[in-house]
Every structure is written in C-alpha cells, then in structure tokens.
C-alpha cells in the first residue's frame, strides 16, 4: 500500500463519480439520486485518494443521533485487495460515532460485514420486468392523489417503517426531477404512499409504504400509470423485504422476476420497524 493515500469527505461533484461507479457495479441508481442523498448528510460521503486520484468510495450517512446508513462501498478494480478499502471503511464508519449503522450488502460480502460487527436482519430482493407486462397484473382504478410536498401526516406514516426521521431526505425525494409521488387516502385517512423515479436503466418504485397489500397494489398501479406510454417497454424494478411475503406476491403478480438481492444488516439488534408495511424499499444505498 502506498503511503500517499488520503481519505476525506467527497465534494458534490465527486459524489456524482461515486454514483457512476455504483451504476457500473450494477446498482442502477436513479437519475436524481445524488442530490437527494446529499440532502441528508453533506459530510456522509467519503473517498480514498491515491496520489490525488479517487480510487475508493463509501457513504455513512447520519440520519439522526441514533441511526446511520452505509452504502456506496466501492474500490476501483485496479486497487482491490490492497487494504485501501478497509482504511476508508474505518475512517468513514467513525463518522457515525456510536450510532446504529444499517447497510444493504451483496450476499457474497456478508461474512466480511459480519467481521465488522454487522448482523443479518433479513434479505431484500429486487424484482424486475417490463412496465407493460407489470400493468397487466394491477388494477385499473385510480384512487390516489398527487403528493407534491412532504406533509406532517406523510412524515409520521413513514416513520413507522424507517429507523429514523428523514424529513430532509423525503422533502427532496418526493419532489426531485423526474420523481412522481402518490398518496392514497380512505375516509380522509392516509393509508399509503409511494414514489417512482427514472434510473440509469428503466424505473424504480420505492418507497411503497402501505397498510396492506390492497393499498400497495393500488398505489403501485397509480405510480406505473404515471409513466408515459412511450416508455412502457422499459423495465421497472421493485425492491422488497423478504419477510413481507405479500410484497413478494405483489411483485410476482406483476410478472416481475428476481434479478438481485441484498443482505440487510445492522451493527446491533434490528430496529423495530413495520416491515410488513414496506412493499418497496426506498433505496439500497440509503435504506
């Protein structure tokens, strides 16, 4: 390992490089993801620089005083296996202090994450397939309403299904360029909300947080029907937590098939959240 190796937070332009690397690794980030991610913790994205050149990235984003999420852990292929990634990991995780840290890691790295104190909570499974085919397995009815800003009601609804408050993130996520957000009310009561966004390849739906499978199905239908007909031949992806069997059933009813999976892990006991209400994970990079 060279001694001319420096570790520091990334600038916003360098975060765009990290997003490009994630795309190269097959994570298929959204087109507006970087700006949304930076809204949570501007000092949460780190890089390792060898002779001034970026060769490794990681994010450890602090949501609040208790919870952080780790992602974008990538070392350039030319520099793997030389200890650069480990040094960056150690420096970046120190940014989280004594917070509980979560991550979504590829299955083959699960043992390495366990060595750093992470415990498996459950698997997340990415389903994918053509939008046109997915719509055939969904209801036609339009029951939802546009969600153009973060309301206190939506924030409280989301909080039950996420380990920390994330108002800054959601304020950007709901309104980012290309994102479409919908909410579903029954008898003037919020029963679910969701977002669809354009990605490097196709579209992703996430989050979808709903009281039950019927609400989730109606929301997913509304989100997909918000996509122009001209792109219905493109793929849509839905990431679902394996313990929520109803979410997996919804994906299969849409004709989607598993294409990728991650291990959701935490540095301590898994936080008590309503996994049975999560029908679409927001993002593997930020939870």
Explain this structure to me?
The chain is α+β, with helices and mostly antiparallel strands. It has two domains: 5-114, Gcn5-related N-acetyltransferase (GNAT) (Aminopeptidase, 3-Layer(aba) Sandwich), CATH 3.40.630.30; 124-280, Aminopeptidase. 28% of the residues lie in helices and 33% in strands. The protein contains nine helices and 13 strands. Strands 1, 2, 3, 4, 5, 6, 7, 8, 9, 10, 11, 12 and 13 form a 13-stranded mixed beta sheet that branches. The longest helix is centred in the N-terminal third of the chain and has 13 residues, at 12-24. It starts with a strand and ends in a 7-residue tail after the last strand. The mean pLDDT is 95.
What does the main sheet amount to?
A: 13 strands, mixed
CATH topology category name of the largest domain: Aminopeptidase
Q: Unreliable stretches, pLDDT < 50, 5 or more residues? A: none
Q: On the 0-100 scale, what is the average pLDDT?
A: 95
CATH class of the largest domain: Alpha Beta
- Order of helical and strand elements: EHHEEEHEHEHEHHEEEHEHEE
Shape from CA axes?
Answer: globular
Enumerate how many helices there are, as a single number.
Answer: 9
How many extended strands? 13
The percent range for strand residues is: 25-35%
Beginning-to-end CA distance, first to last residue: 32 Å
Provide the CATH architecture of the largest domain: 3-Layer(aba) Sandwich
The overall number of domains is 2
Instruction: Give the radius of gyration.
Output: 19 Å
Helix content: 25-40%
Q: What structural category do the secondary elements indicate?
A: alpha+beta
Pfam families: Acetyltransf_1, Acetyltransf_18
GO molecular function, one term: acyltransferase activity, transferring groups other than amino-acyl groups
InterPro entries: Acyl/Acetyltrans_Enzymes, Acyl_CoA_acyltransferase, GNAT_dom, YitH/HolE_GNAT
Protein name: N-acetyltransferase domain-containing protein
């Amino acid at each position: 390992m060279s001694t001319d190796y420096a570790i520091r937070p990334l600038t916003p332009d360098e975060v765009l490089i990290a997003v490009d690397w994630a795309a190269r690794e097959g994570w298929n980030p959204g087109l507006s993801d970087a700006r949304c991610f930076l809204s949570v913790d501007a000092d949460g994205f780190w890089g390792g620089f060898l002779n001034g050149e970026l060769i490794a990235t990681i994010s450890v984003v602090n949501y609040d005083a208790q919870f952080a999420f780790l992602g974008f852990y990538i070392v350039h292929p030319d520099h793997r296996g030389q200890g650069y990634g480990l040094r960056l990991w150690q420096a970046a995780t120190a940014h989280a202090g004594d917070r509980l840290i979560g991550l979504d890691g590829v299955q083959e790295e699960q043992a390495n994450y366990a060595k750093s104190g992470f415990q498996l909570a459950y698997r997340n499974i990415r389903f994918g397939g053509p939008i046109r085919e997915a719509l055939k397995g969904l209801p036609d009815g339009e029951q939802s309403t546009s969600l153009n800003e973060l309301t206190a009601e939506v924030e409280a609804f989301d909080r039950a299904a996420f380990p920390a408050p994330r108002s800054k993130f959601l304020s950007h996520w709901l309104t980012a360029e290309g994102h479409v957000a919908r909410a579903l009310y029954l008898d003037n009561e919020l029963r679910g909300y969701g977002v669809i966004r354009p990605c490097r390849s196709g579209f992703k739906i996430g989050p979808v947080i709903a009281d039950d499978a019927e609400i989730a199905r109606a929301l997913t239908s509304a989100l997909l029907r918000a996509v122009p007909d001209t792109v219905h031949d493109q793929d849509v992806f839905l990431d679902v937590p394996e313990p929520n069997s109803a979410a997996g059933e919804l994906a299969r009813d849409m004709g989607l098939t598993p294409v990728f999976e991650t291990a959701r892990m935490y540095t301590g006991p898994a936080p008590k959240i309503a996994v049975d209400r999560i029908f679409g994970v927001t993002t593997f990079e930020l939870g």
